[in-house]
Design a protein that fits this description.
Layout: H1 3-24, H2 28-60, H3 64-76, H4 78-89
Helix pairs in contact: 1-2, 2-3
Length: 95
């Protein structure tokens, strides 16, 4: 698969992630709070991950531990996502 295919899948995933707060929130205010939390943690991790990877690479001499830590962090994100699925499945009451 070429780079265009990877970019196309990434773009679709980004769009999906942007809709999750709207689906999970019970009202616009809650959807805004979920979005703010997601952006805060997302950009915070994106800013700190290179520093962590570099520090682990300097300490160990290779990237094995660094990428292992990133893999574990990725797996840990499945826990809140699993809880989010239950929230989305609940019907919204009119009124």
């Amino acid at each position: 698969m070429g780079r265009a295919g990877v970019r196309a899948r990434h773009g679709g995933l980004f769009t999906l992630v942007m809709t999750l707060p709207v689906l999970a929130g019970r009202d616009p205010g809650e959807a805004g709070r979920i979005s703010a939390m997601a952006f805060f943690f997302g950009y915070g991790c994106a800013a700190l991950a290179p520093l962590l990877v570099g520090a682990l690479r300097d300490a160990t001499g290779d990237f094995t531990l660094a990428f292992g830590a990133l893999g574990v962090a990725g797996l840990l994100t499945l826990v809140p996502v699993a809880r989010l699925r239950d929230t989305i499945r609940q019907p919204v009451r009119a009124g």
